[in-house]
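Researcher: Here's a chain I'd like modeled. Treat it as a single chain, no partners, no ligands.
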Amino acid sequence: MGTIFWVNAQNFQQQADSAAHFFNQKEYQKAIDLYTDILSKGQVSAELHYNLGNAYFKAGNLPLSIVQYEKAAKLAPADEDIKFNLQLAKTQTVDKVDVVPIFWLARLEKKIINLLSTNQLAAIGLVSFLLSLTFLMWYFFSNQILIKKLSFWTAGMLLLLSMSSVWASYRAQHENYSRQYAIIVNPSINIKSSPDVNSTNLFVLHAGTKLEVLDQINEWLKVRIENGNTGWIKEKDLIKV
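Model: Modeled as a single isolated chain. Structure tokens:
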């Protein structure tokens, strides 16, 4: 099993190296095909989505580049390169949507939970908890007053860090996976007032615009844009991230 895993890892790395080579040679479609093939085989990482996003961006496919940058940002929210390229791609979209102001506490919470990935936060929480148990043992079994005091307060701070990390990991997980987002891939789409082709057109959105998916009825999705407006759109006109 270990040999099979190693061989597969080598094959994926060779494909990734080949994709990077094609990208550097400006053969973007070949790079896209290779990165897409790697992802289709279950290999998921922020780097793969980021590189695929770059290939789509260079190939002139703005909406699909945003899809991949959003997926990369989901896995590595603190990565500055991902954030920069995502913002750069968004500046080239047609729709300029005013974002609903967020209360400062909510903004602070979002910044905290986006400092690290959910896995990193969970790891910090686990390690901090184990270290706090170690210091508690020193507190209970040490005969020196100074060591007991230091151990007690250190254990308390580590336990607080552990609880905070687990909370941040949970909040990041909740933000990333309890809410469903999607990117419009068609050049221009009418947002409907109800899940019916004959319903009223509320407004028009264009390729690359990010939407939050609120509900689904058959092939129709109820969506909300960043300024709070809602409407209905067909599922085939967007890609979920």
